[in-house]
Amino acid sequence: MKGEVRINLGSGPDGVQGWINYDWGWLPFLAKIPLLRRLLVSLGILDKSYQRDWREVVLHDLRKGIPLMANSVDWIYSSNFLEHLEKYEAEELLKECLRVLKQNGKIRLVVPDLKKIMDKYLKNGDADVFCREFYGFDKDKNMGLGKSAIRGHQWMYDFENLSRLINKVGFTKIKNSAYRKSSMKDVDILDLPIHQELGLYIEASKV
Ligand SMILES: C[S@@+](CC[C@H](N)C(=O)[O-])C[C@H]1O[C@@H](n2cnc3c(N)ncnc32)[C@H](O)[C@@H]1O
Asked: pTM of the predicted model, to two decimals?
């Protein structure tokens, strides 16, 4: 709908047009200085997989809040970001989400579902796969300087503890959603296939 304000928290490199895509870290920062990044890649200090565009991305550390006025946002989307914050930081950010949302505004959160990760491990018994999914990056590889650009998972969620947290900060109408099942615009672009298998999809409202 025209005039809606939509924000995407921890967007990653693929910011979506029509959304304010916030991200913060060495990789989006270096993307704004392509010459320096090319040099770091050519010296082998950074892997060439870091050579991404980061289009449409606003550099902002979301641990410092959301730089928007209260009651100004219609939709908030965030995928595979909340678990990279300490739990108290996630709680502060969710309070910020509530502050900036308009009345009846909505939030859609996607995180790796701890329950699905555990169930998969109990079924397959592959501890290496489990560790990769639990820690959220290839902790077993020597990534050189690249490692300092990555913050792994700091806390993990299932439907129960995430809905408890969302409810604690004041969201209501919390519902267990599913991959690409939403009235949210652009859900087919924003919900990425790579997160489908282990994703937990939650929506809630500010009433
Ligand atoms: C695992 S990626 C998720 C990217 C994308 N949303 C997705 O679904 O694949 C987590 C993103 O959060 C960003 N991030 C980490 N800490 C942040 C912070 N304090 N403020 C804003 N973005 C942050 C990282 O740079 C990274 O792009």
From this structure: 0.94
